[in-house]
Amino acid sequence: QRITTPILMLTAKGAVADRVLGLDAGADDYLTKPFDFEELSVRVRALTRREARATPSVLQAGDLAIDTLARKVTIKDKVTDLTGREYAILEYLVSHQGILVTRTKLTQHIWNQDFDSTSNLVDVYIKRVRRKIGDEGGTMIQTVRGAGYRFGK
Length: 153
What we know:
This protein has helices at 16-24, 37-52, 84-95, 103-111, 121-132, and strands at 8-11, 29-32, 58-61, 64-67, 72-75, 78-80, 101-102, 141-144, 148-151. By secondary structure, the chain is α+β, with helices and mostly antiparallel strands. Helix 3 (84-95) packs across helix 4 and helix 3 packs across helix 5 (121-132). The longest helix is centred in the first third of the chain and has 16 residues, at 37-52. It is globular, with a radius of gyration of 18 Å. The two termini are 28 Å apart.
């Protein structure tokens, strides 16, 4: 299950490299000490407003629908069985429609780690997902050679 709680990082480390590292590690916002309590309060309110506008419970892409609450994928109203990782890959790609998703980003999101760049694990899972959703030709999940994958046009 995806964690949607916003993360506000409060730290004394204010260098640009530290802020970049914190945000890349998953923080939604970054505030350095010393900070004004009013600013902290405003940032917390902004993060909680963002949560209220969270992604819809059903992601739609043509004939493909993903019910994120039930973790159910349907194509032309027919339920498609996916493993947990296959589902996670498809949901991540569909929720980032039209955006290039690198192999590294996929492995970090799905497996919470970096794999050897020569590993074909991501390719194997993409092939399985394509087969199960009837996309053997790669029209929905497009391969961007040397870069990653993109869902949709």
